[in-house]
Amino acid sequence: LFRRGWPIESLRLAACMVEGTAVENHAVLVVSFEGKEYALDNRQRGICSINDLHSLGYTPVRIQREGGSKGWKEWLWQKQ
To answer: Going by C-beta distance under 8 Å and a sequence separation of 6 or more, which residues neighbour residue 38?
Structure first.
């Protein structure tokens, strides 16, 4: 997405826990667009809202800090 012109500030990696046959770590790409956040997840067919991830049973763990930072912080979901 960055190579296609999306600003790096709007793209952040995020880590979450996913329950299936076992609990496992999973990463998604969180994209900020027009004041909302969406997730690109290779386990889903399309773009997910943060609410979709919550309803799928994902548990947030950490997310990259805003502004293209290499630092991470605790990921707290807010209903959108």
So the answer is: 30, 31, 47, 48, 49, 50
